[in-house]
Automatic annotation (TrEMBL):
Quaternary organization: Homodimer.
Primary role: Catalyzes the NADPH-dependent formation of L-aspartate-semialdehyde (L-ASA) by the reductive dephosphorylation of L-aspartyl-4-phosphate.
Species of origin: Blochmanniella vafra (strain BVAF)
NCBIfam families documented for this protein: asd_gamma, PRK06598.1
Stated name of the protein: Aspartate-semialdehyde dehydrogenase
Keyword Lyase: no
One Pfam family per UniProt: Semialdhyde_dhC
TM spans (from-to): none
Gene name for this UniProt entry: asd
E.C. number: 1.2.1.11
Family assignment from sequence similarity: Belongs to the aspartate-semialdehyde dehydrogenase family.
Cross-referenced InterPro entries: Asp-semialdehyde_DH_CS, Asp_ADH_gamma-type, NAD(P)-bd_dom_sf, Semialdehyde_DH_NAD-bd, Semialdhyde_DH_dimer_dom
Length: 371
């Protein structure tokens, strides 16, 4: 049996990965070693019965890491940046599987999303690629939703408007949003009980409070409650006026699909108050005029997780929302219709769990493939 090391298994993405692996009994197929960057020597998690007495190993110990067949890290780019070159320089030729972005565009790395790029992954494995990295969450979720159209080479370009969940900024950001909700409620709860107070007065109190320094904004820098934040991540160095989150859309999509002719993708990325599902509104220019039924069939038959939601109000509100998709592997896509600007233009809205298909699931699947 192969020996697989896990670093960053306790964080938010790491925990989702661990849960999925337990659900699917993945741990029965290899020997797991758990690492810690700060608590080596403490008790490791019990993932299967035989692992009762394991202890955490030191995630900085190159000699120990060298003994692994496969290393899976959800620790983030800082860890990868430090350890990866040193481990490779030590002569280690094992498989490195990573959720962090640092190595994504590295020429020796393949970005994994096997329902979409199985052939690219298989070619990589056959050619001796040893580094596999999960994609940016919005990119992976968009590709899972539109795989059927990409697969048939039907897409000329896409413009994406995102509605990204707090979880994309990490566990602390979800807490911050919840604290903000509580702070705002506490500010006006007395007023809400008094039917003589007009709603505009309550709104005024909330807005004034939200503009003070009292509201918690360590992560987002501005209140997310009662607000939307139209910028995610740093500004792109290469393209002024574009955020790095927006820049990744075209770059990663084309790398994942290994396209020979660039598929044009542009986006405007926005943070909203949902907890762990990213939503995306898409404007798609097709290469030819297809009927809507054909488009829906191509989309839905592409993979087991994408579900076309009928373009009706009650069904969209029931099945095409962050709330309805959260915690599931379902990739919902709906609001599909021909746009009135031309027959080759379609609109769509898609929702996916940013921690599952957006992060953990492609990682557990490549691990299983490499065992
Ligand atoms: N960068 C994404 C976000 C998360 O901020 O929502 C993961 O790719």
């Amino acid at each position: 049996m192969k020996t697989v090391g896990f670093v960053g298994w306790r964080g938010m993405v790491g925990s989702v990965l661990m849960n999925r692996m337990k659900e699917e009994s993945d741990f029965n197929h290899f020997n797991a070693v758990f690492f810690s960057t700060s608590q080596a020597g403490e008790k490791a998690p019990v993932v299967i019965q035989d692992h009762q007495n394991l202890i955490l190993q030191n995630a900085w110990d190159i000699e120990y890491l060298k003994s692994l067949d496969i290393l899976v890290t959800c620790q983030g780019s800082t860890y990868t940046k430090f350890i990866y070159p040193r481990l490779r320089a030590s002569g280690w030729t094992g498989y490195w599987i990573d959720t962090a972005s640092y190595l994504r565009m590295h020429q020796d790395a393949v970005i994994v999303l096997d329902p979409v790029n199985k052939l690219v992954i298989e070619r990589g494995i056959n050619n001796g690629v040893k580094t596999f990295v999960g994609g940016n969450c919005t990119v992976s979720l968009m590709l899972m939703a539109l795989g059927g159209l990409f697969n048939q080479n039907l897409i000329e370009w896409i413009f994406v408007s995102t509605y990204q969940a707090a979880s994309g900024y990490g566990a602390k950001a979800i807490k911050e949003l919840l604290v903000q909700i509580g702070q705002v409620y506490n500010t006006i709860s007395d007023l809400l009980d008094d039917s003589n107070i007009p709603i505009l007065e309550i709104e005024r109190v909330i807005t004034e409070f939200s503009k003070t320094n009292t509201i918690s904004t360590d992560c987002f820098k501005k209140p997310l409650i009662g607000n939307v934040l139209p910028w995610i991540g740093e500004e792109c160095v290469e393209y002024k006026g574009q955020s790095r989150e927006e820049w990744k859309g075209q770059l990663e999509t084309n790398k994942i699909l290994n396209t020979s002719k660039l598929i044009l993708i542009d986006s405007l990325c926005v943070r909203v108050c949902s907890l762990r599902c990213h939503s995306q509104s898409l404007m798609i220019k097709l290469k030819k005029n297809l009927c809507l039924t054909e488009i829906e069939n191509l989309i839905e038959s592409h993979n087991n997780w994408v579900k076309v939601v009928s373009n009706q109000a009650d069904i969209s509100l029931g099945q095409l929302t962050p709330l309805s998709v959260s915690g599931t592997l379902r990739i919902a896509i709906g609001r599909l219709r021909k746009m009135n600007i031309g027959d080759e233009f379609i609109s769509a809205f898609t929702v996916g769990d940013q921690l599952l298909w957006g992060a953990a699931e492609p990682i557990r699947r490549i691990l299983n493939r490499l065992l």
